[in-house]
Amino acid sequence: MKILVINGPNLNMLGKREKEIYGKISLDSINKKLKTMARKEGAEVETIQSNYEGKIIEIIQKAAGKYDVLIINPAAFTHTSIAIQDAIRAAEIPAIEVHLSNIYKREDFRSKSFIAPAAVGQISGFGENSITSQCGPHWNSQRRSDACRTSERHFSETNQKAAGAALKREG
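RESULT FIELD:
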């Protein structure tokens, strides 16, 4: 299984900016954790970060046929980029949209995702776990045709567990 992880604008500043929203962990630390988890499962992970929409589009276009799954945190481009949505559709790679923060609990403009219609699922609001939970045991030796169903099932299970834990903390 080959997994491509794309992180969008300003995510290179994780650990330095708005720690109350994004946490204290750096993108390098998240990437190292992802690669370690994937290696244990026999998967390969390539991580890329760009602050430029056009570069992200080119990376997605070149990924077609080379990767089994795309995990993307489009960051601010989530709310503005129909072009990234189009690139994901054209690449025909199962895409999972992830966000460290809960985009639905923030400013109103952040609750609209142009990426979601092209993704098999979305997970947000669980910090680094929004990303790292996507490289667990369910990826091991899955064929490309199975990736969507597996991702959707994993999203459901992960979201139910995380929501239950969050409710216990708040309650």
